[in-house]
Design goal:
By secondary structure, the chain is α+β, with helices and mostly antiparallel strands. It contains 10 helices and 10 strands. A hairpin with a 2-residue loop joins strand 1 and strand 2. Helix 1 crosses helix 2 and helix 5 packs across helix 6. The longest helix has 17 residues.
Length: 295
Amino acid sequence: MDRHELAWAAGFFDGEGWANRSGRGVQSRINQSDNDGVPDVLLRFQRIVGCGRIGGPVREDGRKDLYFWCVSSQIDVGAVATAMWPWLGEVKRAEFRLALPHAPRSIVEELPRTELLAWAGGLYDGEGSASLSHHRTHQGHFSPEVAVTQSGVTRPGVLEQIHKVMECGRIYGPYEQDGATLPVYRWKASAIGDVEQAIYLLSPWIGHIKREQARRVSRVLVEQGRLPRGNLAWGNRKTHCLRGHEYATARVRPYVPRRDGMQQPRDSEQCLACARDDARERRQKKTARPNYLLK
């Protein structure tokens, strides 16, 4: 089996799977909800690991139909753990160690970035989302968000990992959430550049449902265009300086200090006409200063 597919399966299991001992032996399982039949991600996972059965639907009033992938023999649980082990997070590895008499041995290896991205795609297929919300200050515009949610006693390692792989966004939490037994944490990218980067990196690896969701977000961002930064009322797009010089003719240049030893230029801009006027005024004051040393 292709290593990228196995990496995706490990990410998906990190997000949605579990393994433990049961009264009959051992079991490993992944749950997914869908009202349109067996979720494609469960079928993809089953195909990758090469074993297990798909069960469901389990129906409850007011909730989506529940489907699940499951293996319940020691041989199959061990085979699934072995297949995913190089990419699997430490929490799920610990579950397999408790469930199996002989868990796979940890091998330290540097994983290629494409495999890490495939793992991130699996985690996103299990726990991720791309969404839009109404912009706080610009009516008719939307703010994007790409996020992956996980719960844990402490900040989940899989969120640390996807944050590192995506090279954007931040991890937020802990939060309290209805129905959650543990604190909830979230990796989230909300700056437009970060959202675009995350969607670009994830798209080759995720399933068609999450990919189409991400594409809808991307289409809205393209159609609505970029908002200019800052608040117009605060003067972020002024055409004249405070003294009335027109920027288009006076030219605006970054301020660069001439004094030795100052490595970083000041983070500001200066009207060239004002700079000339100020320099002329300083020269005139210096010339007009009386020399009290002369008798």
